[in-house]
Specification:
The protein is an all-alpha fold. It is built from twelve helices and no strands. The protein is globular, with a radius of gyration of 17 Å. It starts with a helix and ends with a helix. 34% of the residues are buried. The model has no long low-confidence stretch (mean pLDDT 94). It comes from Phytomonospora endophytica. This is DUF4240 domain-containing protein.
């Protein structure tokens, strides 16, 4: 699956979910001020599952590979810092979940935040999360959606899917294990303000 096709699937699913611009604005406006925002990514996940269940096992592997490749592109220190602010901390596993959520925002947003992670402060979901002191864009389930779709459509266990996916990836290049971009101290507010001024102001109040 080439990047155009992959991002086309993401765009189609996003358009039918609460991440669509008008739907997101209406959802946020209708929520009580203290209500969590978890339904937004859940709606994307549910829509993605419906789409994945139409795919053959080979197509699921191709989608999964494209998703992995997109997530590796987002393995970027400033984005990890953004996840650290939004999540009130961000382990290696949590950063994978955060990158899943970034992919759900679509190709344009992923390109924007790779260029400048602080532009994430302009996304309506992030703005709403800051106002509610809520955590958004962390979605572990999106990483496992192809395996669950495989299980649902074939009746075979998820372990068979993982073995199939490993065979699919055999002989393909391994991406770098270290994040790209500048590394800096996530626990120093002044440093974070220098790199991510808007997100830091949103999510890290002065002592």
């Amino acid at each position: 699956m080439d990047p155009e096709e992959f991002w086309g699937v993401i765009a189609d699913v996003r358009a039918g979910s609460l991440l669509a611009d008008e739907a997101l604005a209406a959802h946020i406006a209708a929520l009580p001020a203290d209500a969590p925002l978890d339904a937004v990514l859940r709606s994307f996940h549910d829509g993605l599952m419906i789409r994945l269940k139409t795919m053959t096992p080979a197509e699921l592997c191709a989608f999964d590979e494209a998703h992995d490749d997109a997530r590796r592109r987002l393995y970027h220190w400033p984005l990890w810092a953004a996840g650290y602010l939004i999540g009130g901390g961000c382990s290696d596993d949590a950063f994978m979940d955060f990158r899943n959520g970034l992919i759900a925002l679509g190709r344009e947003w992923c390109e924007r935040v790779l260029g400048d992670a602080d532009t994430l402060a302009e996304h309506p979901l992030v703005i709403a999360a800051a106002a509610r002191e809520d955590e958004v864009l962390f979605c572990e389930e999106l990483a496992y959606a192809p395996a669950y779709a495989f299980e649902a459509t074939t009746g075979r266990p998820r372990d068979e899917y993982w073995a199939l996916y490993e065979r699919h990836r055999e002989g393909k290049p391994v991406h770098g294990a270290s994040p790209t971009g500048p590394d800096f101290d996530f626990d120093d507010r002044e440093v974070m303000l220098a790199h991510l001024p808007r997100l830091t102001a949103f999510f890290w109040a002065e002592d």
